[in-house]
What does this fold into?
Amino acid sequence: MPSGPALAQFALFPDHPNRLTAEARAIGLPLDGPYHALLVQGDDELGALASVHARLVDAKIDIYASTGVTDGRGAFGYLVYVREDQFPRAVAALEL
It folds into this structure.
């Protein structure tokens, strides 16, 4: 995400997107998006992300960005950004 002394950009995935949009508009906060992403969570083990990517590649899904973290206790969270038109197939490929 772009950042600097006077700039910060955050990726938010609200439970209530319409509420976020309305509140941001009310205070004059510009929003960018929406972006289509999947949050994949699981056990932090060797090859965990490779299997996620393999399933998406097999479904012919274009991943244009991703980022992940581990909690240090054996679990991970991984955001995978996909094209809007491929989102339903990506969900199906990962069986979410």
Q: What stands out?
A: The first strand starts at residue 3 and ends at 4.
